[in-house]
User: Fold this.
Amino acid sequence: MRHNIVTLPEITQRSDSHKATAQVFNDPESKKLLEYIKQIAPSEASVLIHGETGTGKELIARQIHNHSKRRNKPFIAVNCGAFSETLVESELFGHEKGAFTGALSSNAGWFEAANGGTLLLDEIGDLSKRIQVKLLRLLQEREVVRLGSRKSIPVNVRVLAATNVNLEQAILSDQFREDLYYRLNVVTLNIKPLRERKGDILPLAYHFIDKYHAQLGYDKADFSNAAKEKISNYWWPGNIRELENMIHHALLICQNGIIESHDLTLIQPPTQLNQNKLQEKKASEPVINPKLKEVFHQLFQQNDGQVYAKFEEQLLRIAYNYCHQNQVKTAQMLGLSRNVIRSRLIDLGELVVNKRGE
Assistant:
């Protein structure tokens, strides 16, 4: 049975050992993701792709590009974490001759190289705050200014961003700009780890068998039933890249063209919490802050049927001011969504909305 396998181009310089080189859309969750990609791809919206390392974020970005109106234009993927702070500005935005020591000629950056097409900024969270400011300006103005130049160059690029970190948490820790986050996060794609889309595991495994059989001349191989069960139930912390490496190794050591269960070297999952500690935690009573308890008692004594509403209102106002009127930080601290926080702040008169709902 043939499956919809998507692979990366065979690029000799590709050295990202963590990067997934193939993606399949066989699992029901993956099929839904592919349909969603086809829906959002024709637009010009920026897309933020989130997923663990090795889940195939670049492959998803290529699918977006291939289903878009820019499919016949360049697709360029740039790993933001692969460049030093001194080089990343030149790599992204380009530089003029003499802009720095060693700049013997003018060079276009990746934004100019991707003009008319799509640029994937992989590991976007690795960019410094200084570069984030310049990136935000580029996205707003649709023009790039090379390092060492004052001349702006118009660019027409659809920007996709990928990350394996929680950017909202990075905003709270002052590692990532909130305005840049919302500029990039018009559409969000959350790529599930391989362990949560089991229907993709065996098709990918057979793809990697075929790949190494063709490239390296290994004998054609298959899995024993025990091996199939083992890889289907494994937790795959390294996702697709780990699967590829494991199949490669298994082909080297298997006998008679059959990959047995013992040919698959798996990492044991993290040790679960000690059962005794869990029982102790359940048995322990919550500790109530004495000052809070006193405040609650004062509210209870009023007995006007509005205790909860009053407390919720005051809690939200105090939290919002504590977070310097930052909705994302307030939502994170209270464990609520930003939409809920925004709605309640509007109800309380803390936010004023214009006619356009802004």
